[in-house]
Specification:
By secondary structure, the protein is α/β, with parallel strands linked by helices. It has seven helices and nine strands, in the order βαββαββαβαβαβαβα.
Length: 211
């Protein structure tokens, strides 16, 4: 079975779409955002940067209009989101699945975004931003992932480098660091490719997979 990863984060606007793009380009993987709330669609942001012959994107299970929490956006449209109605796209390729918001962003009155990862037994990649208070937010998220007994591939740090913060999170989580993304003025294909090559090296995969 191909590898399937779930990109989530310690809060919203964390860089999940950027990280998803880097992983998809590095692994020549497919990309899928099961629940999209608001425009522009993250799929439309990712698609132009997948410059290889294998990657393709898949249609959202729920495409909502309002840029807010999925459960609130769904309520405005009189839609009820339920994990049982979300079906995995048909693909033989590696799949990158991007969540919405943080792991406990609600998709309904009963379910959270992280329930999608649980349903499909996806291996989690956690994006941790670097800012004042991020240790607390990171550890709360990590503890919840462990409580739910989810598989975690590792952590991607996004933001200004802070080795003390990063080392604390890595030590207490027990997860490896997969990538460090520095602040970038503009995201270009060159930047995506550079991080993709770095990611492959960290995963001990051959760089020629990047194309």
């Amino acid at each position: 079975m191909p590898e399937r990863y779930f990109i989530t984060a310690i809060h919203t606007d964390s860089g999940k779409t950027l990280v998803s793009t880097i992983f998809a380009q590095a692994l020549h993987a497919d990309y899928w955002k099961p629940i999209q709330a608001g425009y522009p669609r993250d799929t439309d942001t990712v698609m132009p940067f997948l410059q290889n012959k294998k990657s393709r994107t898949h249609k959202e299970a729920y495409l909502l209009q309002a840029p807010m929490s999925p459960h609130a956006a769904a309520r405005l449209e009189h839609v009820e989101i339920h994990p049982a109605t979300i079906l995995m796209p048909e693909t033989d390729n590696t799949l990158i699945v991007e969540g919405a918001g943080g792991i406990l962003a609600p998709i309904s009155d009963e379910y959270f975004v992280i329930d999608i990862a649980k349903k499909f037994d996806l291996e989690v990649i956690l994006v941790c931003n670097i800012y004042l208070g991020s240790i607390n937010h990171s550890m709360l998220t990590i503890n919840e992932l462990k409580r739910r007994k989810l598989k975690v591939k590792g952590i991607v740090f996004n933001g200004p480098e802070n080795l003390e913060t990063e080392q604390f999170i890595l030590k207490h989580s027990g997860y490896p660091c997969l990538l460090r993304i520095k602040p970038e003025k503009k995201i270009t294909q060159e930047i995506i490719n550079r991080y993709a090559i770095e990611l492959l090296a960290n995963l001990n995969l051959p760089s020629e997979k990047q194309g």
